[in-house]
Amino acid sequence: MAVYLNALGLNCALGQGKAAVAKALFAGDASGMRAQGGWVAERALTVGAVPGELPALPALPGHPASRNNQLLLAAALEIESEIRAAIAQFGAGRIGVILGTSTSGIEEASQGIAQHQQHGELPASYDYAQQELTAPAAFLSDWLGLGGPSYVISTACTSGARALLSAQRLINLGLCDAVLCGGVDSLCRLTLNGFSALEAVSAEPCQPFSANRQGINIGEGAALFLMSKEALPGSEPISLLGGGASCDAHHISAPQPDGLGAQAAMEKALTAAGISAEQVDYLNLHGTATLHNDAMESHAVQAIFPNGVPCSSSKAMVGHTLGAAGALEAAFCWLTLSPYNPEHCLPPHLWDGQADPALPTLNLVNTGTQLSTKHPRRLMSNSFAFGGNNISLLLGDAP
């Protein structure tokens, strides 16, 4: 059953807050992607860092500081009034928290371990709990005083999308009246060095689906939705119509070349939403700019949309935000349908325009391409992860 995404708080390399992100997103502004050194030894990499200052974390016992929680808090503060109103309406015990992440506070923990290796002792600020994957959800629940189900999903690059599906399930099962759901991930030396070791990182700006693609850029960000079964007072909600999940388990890091697992996720999403592929107005591609992912996804998209569908990858503007990516790109679909997009633009596909002749041709949209204003409109967002983990979400205009 469809649920409502009543409010959204977010930040990424495009900016902090819905208005700033929407303005940069629809203009195709990739200025937030910048080359930085210090993440991987003897190598500068293009990364997508959240600009500006982040809010100071409140002093909560058992919650050591991390940039990951700061990103999450910034997103939550943007919609705090809506959250507080939901608490007043439903009660703290009826509101859950489900988030996706892959880093949590590993960057801060790694800094502490590095100091131990150099000086033989851990810094006073070191706390093992800051790197626990449950940390973001526990922090948000305790800060808000919530008593509903609270947990974190970590399925690599589908984590944030899976959090939305799990939140929808909690609501449809009657276990929650509202759920704070989404994803958060911060830039981290561990992940950057890991992807570099896999030879999957490009030092230059990434080029999704280009013949010249060389790999991903890593980014950071947070997207937090307030989901409920019914539209909340004063909101202008977008609906999560449904989603589909599959796991082809083809390889620990490489995608299934024929894209059958990705196809299955898209087919399940269409079935869950009760629509056909021809009724989808736009597809946000996973589009990592790696050789194998883009090849697999292009074949899967051609199979589901043989007549084509307007599509784009947003990773050239924000980087691959890993555990936050699925939620962040669902947020871009939310913005596309929202009043924050008065010109009805689609997120553009930024690349060098050099199509790979070995791949099926996709209908990649340019800056200024507009979404139909005829309701209802339906947008799909793909997320694929290590281990053959696949998620597709469908968002649409609220009825």
UniProtKB/TrEMBL annotation:
Keyword Transferase: yes
CDD domains: KAS_I_II (cd00834)
Domain Ketosynthase family 3 (KS3): residue ranges: 1-397
Top-level taxon of the source organism: Bacteria
BP terms from Gene Ontology: fatty acid biosynthetic process
Any one annotated GO CC term: cytosol
Pathway(s) annotated for this protein in UniProt: Lipid metabolism; fatty acid biosynthesis
Listed GO MF terms: 3-oxoacyl-[acyl-carrier-protein] synthase activity
Database matches in InterPro entries: Beta-ketoacyl_synthase (IPR000794), Ketoacyl_synth_AS (IPR018201), Ketoacyl_synth_C (IPR014031), Ketoacyl_synth_N (IPR014030), PKS_Beta-ketoAc_synthase_dom (IPR020841), Thiolase-like (IPR016039)
Keywords attached to this entry: Transferase
Keyword flag Transferase: yes
Record-linked PROSITE patterns: KS3_1 (PS00606), KS3_2 (PS52004)
Family as reported in the entry's similarity comment: Belongs to the thiolase-like superfamily. Beta-ketoacyl-ACP synthases family.
Protein name: Beta-ketoacyl-ACP synthase
Organism: Pseudomonas xionganensis
